[in-house]
Amino acid sequence: MQDLLYGVMMYGISLLTIGGIYAILSLGLNLHWGMTGLFNAGIAGFFAIGAYTSTLLTTAESPNHFGGLNLPIPVGLVASMLVAGIVAFGVGKICLRLRSDYLAIATIGVAEILRLILKNEIWLTSGSRGIPSIPRPFEHLPQPWSELGFLAVVLVLVLVLYLALERAFHSPWGRIMRAIRENETAAASTGKDVERFRMEAFVLGATLMGLGGALTAHAFKFVSPDASEPLLATFLVWVMLIIGGSGNNRGAILGAVIVWAVWSSTELLSRFLPIDWLNRMGYVRIFLVGLILQFILQRRPEGLLPERYSDE
Amino acid sequence: MSSLLASGIVGGYGGMNILNKASVEVSKDEIAVIIGPNGAGKSTLMKAIFGLVQVREGQVTLAGTDLTNCHPQVLVLQGLAYVPQVRNVFPNLSVEENLEMGAYLNPQDVPDALVEMYDLFPDLKPKRRQAVGELSGGQRQMVAIGRALMSRPRFLLLDEPTAGLAPKVMGEIFECILGINQTHVGILMVEQNAKKALEIAHQGYVLTSGENRFSDTAANLLANEEVAASFLGG
Amino acid sequence: MFEFINFYFIPGVVLGFIYALGAVGISLLFGILRFAHFAHGDLMTFGAYVALMMVTTFGIPAMGAIPVAMLVAALLAVGIDHFFYKPFRESRTIILVIASFGISLMLRSTVQFFFGVDVKVYQRGIQRPLVFFDTLRIAERHLWIVGGAIVIIVLVHLFLTRTRLGKAMRAMSDDADLALVSGIHTERVIMATWGIGAALAAVAGVFLGIDTQLHSNMGWDQLLPLFAAAILGGIGRPYGAIAGALVIGMAEELSAYPWIGNEPLLSPGYKTGVAFAIMIAMLIWRPSGLLRGRVF
Q: Which H helix or E strand runs over B169?
């Protein structure tokens, strides 16, 4: 019995940890879409940049890939945010002026190019083999403290980011962003530099996605260009934001936790099925998530927690 | 009584009402002109009659049949045709294809109707396979009106048919409109060239702020000093 | 010289025609419904796998399964539009894009449910190429694909220029409001567009499967080149899309040719990036496309 309880507790901790990481990704997407109306279908790209940056900095030296500087994890995390932000700046310079569905295509393309680079530049990334043995915070502690420690790191990050973003959303900066989202021409006519604001939101959101990628790499101690099916990850984050309530930081976090909990627990349940059904259940889940998305878009597009800002 | 009647129209885009109990009437052999300052709701009234703008109060009837807020397809079948002010041709389709689209609901009439159109607009015949986007403003306008006529309408709604055209071409278009009217097609048109339009019209309506200001025969409006001063310009 | 033609030029042409069939559908849909249909690639996948089902169940060659694949795909697309896109006719296009994103995953997961993620082929075994003039080697399947694509494109052209419905589609693509005003039944035109676009995508999928192999991501992987072709040719210009597709197909295959020295100009791993680079260049430099479509 004690074993079962322990198992459930560990599962719960893991659930919250990954859910928290998804919350960070979701908050990043909220900056793009909820706040600024930028359709970023290339989340996976910034995710991957963050993951690899932190990995290359924090792993041990290896002939298989570049870097391996054995730096402490916090350095890796910060670096992942910086690099993701820089790449976002470059991408933004080229793509942000595009109309929304062109932007969507362009961001998919960017993510795809990044994936190709990660896959082909083997000297840099070890290619499709991936990079194992990535350090994990608190990994030298005994269980359950190791898991709890990591969870604490993630939760603290979520909290800090949430507070910072709430502050930003309610500030004059946030108001201008919302004005741009609602009516770009009107906002531009007031003399605000629309491009600059969009770029700021884009870069900031990307840094969060990079952070999420880095945390994931450390959580699973492994990274590869195709790990965790990047497209699915992108899609899930979108679903999380839409279900939770786009434009809304609390909604972003709530959506992430709920969708991840449902996703993860159905995966757990399907483990009890015979092996060939296991794979098939995976596809059924994806189908259902797609269907739920349609339902939410049609019936309750504002999500569970509709956006409301008291200054409006 | 064969006439197109819009009475007491209240309506507009979104939540706002631009029209405030506006009324116009055209009978089958008449040309009626709507004039007025910018923003008075003239175009909006046309669109309201043609079911493109929500009518919240009032009625649109044609020979007694209620056509308020009907689907454009119904209106075309009932004998109404509409030429918008802008974007009134299919630029990537040829002249002939544009005209064919006008007869979409009466394709059996296409061969005869095409002959009539090329009689009415002889300039278009040599260009029939040319993409309309390449034609001059005046020729484009002819295609626009021709497209509407292909459905053999009883009433033709024209929104500023001479907008942006050179004076000579303007004259040709007005001639055209007179000719069309002679074939027993009622014409309701919005015009910025108020004076010229009233000169060929039977009835006139002056619209300001979404409501009727003056409604009279065209001749009387032309003679009316107040109208002349405020609305007929130079 | 002949190595160039056999191993780079001809595959480029074949790929270009496959892209063309998909890109025409995307361009038509983009022109009439004003949104980038993210599930189009997965319609290709769907068509390819319907054909696979026919091949394994009835033993007919893949080419013979094409009509069925086209019909099923057309009906499916009309159904998808009715339930999942029609509610958003008046909404912002980005909502449609999100919905189609979801549909693409639903389509893909359905294929994966029934067929898994392993690679499949229509027909096993190596086929000897046909040899012309002692040096020109063309695989028989390439002849079928290019020939079939040309026939279909001609049929589409005739449809768009000789039939009332086809002209109505072009008219609606030019100006949907004016089409409505002219009495055109816009919902029927939309349904026809979905049917035709999906049927073309299905054929493209089968051809792709014949040319290489089938896997559940085959269509999604084409999405970028398809959009690139449509954008290159000018949005809403189906003929432009065909030209754009040929350019993209050729560019992808030719990028691996050792133009300078002995190494491929671009490492083959980056082939799919070529389409993207071309597309980005177009969007920045000349968003209306080479043939001046609409910009929005």
A: helix B167-182
